[in-house]
Design brief:
VC0802-like, 11 helices, alpha/beta, 7-stranded mixed β-sheet, 32% strand, Rossmann fold
């Protein structure tokens, strides 16, 4: 069985990297095939696992807009003849709508929607079209001459990433990371449900919220009492259940339980507190966090382009597995690094 992903075009490589990381962390058995930038198919999913895989991916992914269940792949010439081959009453309960998206194609979207909607009605019983609140959405993706006829069973909660932007939370501080990027960083850490995720510079709690919402146990520390308390307020507001926050200087960090992943955005710039250590806070952080990570744990961290963290990584005993650049504005590019302990 197959799933079709329409991914965000906000970044050239993060959406696919996030998808691969989630599939790896969840242990899903499937093959990933990129049709073109922003269009991906996951195939060879076992039918017994399909519903859970589909649902879990919609719960976790941030840089994906839509995930749909592939009913068939065909071409524009044969699309109409394929419609009668389906038992549409087994797929659609009562109402439906057909939506078409085209890529590198000049096909008439409205014409296809009307034609296929009519054919479904002709080859089914007691179904109706509902353009506003359909029970089922049939999505047709046209790429060049290829056509993917799909059904949307689960819908990603894209509204969450708008409603939980930093300035809309109870506790706010300038320089906060967007929930979409924070969720992506959490996913890149390969954290699993029930595992322990640590953010040693928790700030307003963005990483903790995203880790908690996908089922991880989360712990946040910060040198600032205000941030420590603000993180807790935001976690409660988001509905995160299993979280703890502490006021701890990074040099004094000692976890009661070694963590399965570290996801963090260490402080830098005039709006943050580094305790007077500036760039050296990265080395202090790496030395401290190494003592508190499991051997197979990953560290996912953001850093500004003007700080060379590689000199500290090699010195302390870490290696970079993946790296992504995100231009924030003309004076700042964020570097997202996925880092592992050196054997």
């Amino acid at each position: 069985m197959e799933l079709f992903f329409i991914q965000s075009q906000e970044h050239d490589s993060l959406p696919l990297a996030e998808l691969n990381a989630v599939i790896e962390s969840e242990g899903f058995n499937c093959n990933i095939r990129q049709i073109r930038s922003g269009l991906v198919v996951a195939d060879s999913i076992d039918s017994d696992d399909f519903d859970y895989v589909y649902k879990r991916l919609t719960e976790r992914l941030a840089y994906t807009h839509q995930i749909t269940h592939v009913l068939l792949k065909t071409n524009l010439k044969e699309l109409d003849s394929k419609i009668p081959t389906f038992d549409w009453n087994s797929i659609i309960e009562d109402t439906f709508v057909v939506r078409v998206k085209t890529y590198d194609s000049d096909s008439d979207v409205v014409a296809i929607e009307r034609r296929i909607g009519g054919l479904i009605l002709e080859n089914s019983k007691n179904l109706k079209v509902n353009l506003t609140k359909p029970h089922v959405t049939i999505r047709i993706i046209v790429y060049k001459d290829d056509v993917y006829l799909t059904c949307e069973d689960y819908i990603l909660n894209k509204k969450y990433f708008q409603d939980f932007k930093p300035h809309k939370r109870p506790f706010f501080h300038p320089g906060c990371m967007s929930p979409k990027l924070a969720r992506c960083m959490v996913n890149l850490s390969r954290i699993k449900e029930g595992q322990l995720l640590l953010d040693p510079f928790c700030g307003t709690g963005g990483m903790l919220m995203e880790g908690g919402l996908i089922g991880a146990r989360v712990v946040g520390t910060d040198i600032d009492w205000n941030m420590k308390n603000g993180s807790a307020i935001n976690c409660e507001y988001a509905g995160v259940k299993d979280f703890k926050t502490y006021k701890v200087d990074i040099n004094e960090l000692k976890m009661y339980e070694l963590c399965d992943a570290v996801v963090t955005d260490p402080p830098y710039g005039i709006s943050t507190t580094t305790g007077g250590r500036d760039d050296l806070i990265f080395k202090d952080f790496l030395l401290a966090i190494k003592r508190n990570m499991k051997d197979d744990a990953l560290l996912v961290m953001a850093s500004p382009h003007f700080v060379d963290i590689d000199q500290f990584l090699s010195e302390v005993g870490f290696e970079v597995l993946e790296r992504y650049e995100i231009r924030m504005h003309k004076s700042l590019t964020r570097i997202i690094s996925v880092i592992a302990l050196v054997d």
